[in-house]
Amino acid sequence: MIPLQNWLFPKQHRRFNGLRWARIILRTLHIIGVVGLGGGILFHLPENTWYPYLLLTSFTGICLILLELWTNAVWLFQLGGLAILSKLGLFFLLLHFHYYEQFLLISILIISGIISHAPAIVRHYSLWHGKPIDYLPIHDEKSLVPDKKG
């Protein structure tokens, strides 16, 4: 049996035929959800008008996160993954602190715009490792400890 850490952090990212199209379709639906949700919040529309967009945003966001984790959970150590997890936290705050919902929505959009257009060297940067990483070298115990070099 493969240890859990080897399954979560393979050296090569997992792929399947249609992965790129799955991501494109999920991201497109996610953007539609965010636009509908954002419009409802920014223009103070009744909840029943933007609630379906909230569901679409939530469902596609969860699917995108699960897809990234399945591909390679190293994503959790990269700035791209940390940005998404930060957005998820802000999203939950948005649902519970209505007075700040416009500020929280704009914050989510700013993070989205920056991280989605940042070069791979930034998105793949690991704060833990102090450099961009594409896989977590779990077989080398020294690699799990941050490099102390200058």
UniProtKB/TrEMBL annotation:
<feature type="transmembrane region" description="Helical">
    <location>
        <begin position="50"/>
        <end position="67"/>
    </location>
</feature>
<feature type="transmembrane region" description="Helical">
    <location>
        <begin position="21"/>
        <end position="44"/>
    </location>
</feature>
<keyword id="KW-0812">Transmembrane</keyword>
<keyword id="KW-1133">Transmembrane helix</keyword>
<feature type="transmembrane region" description="Helical">
    <location>
        <begin position="103"/>
        <end position="122"/>
    </location>
</feature>
<keyword id="KW-0472">Membrane</keyword>
<feature type="transmembrane region" description="Helical">
    <location>
        <begin position="74"/>
        <end position="97"/>
    </location>
</feature>
<protein>
    <submittedName>
        <fullName>Uncharacterized protein</fullName>
    </submittedName>
</protein>
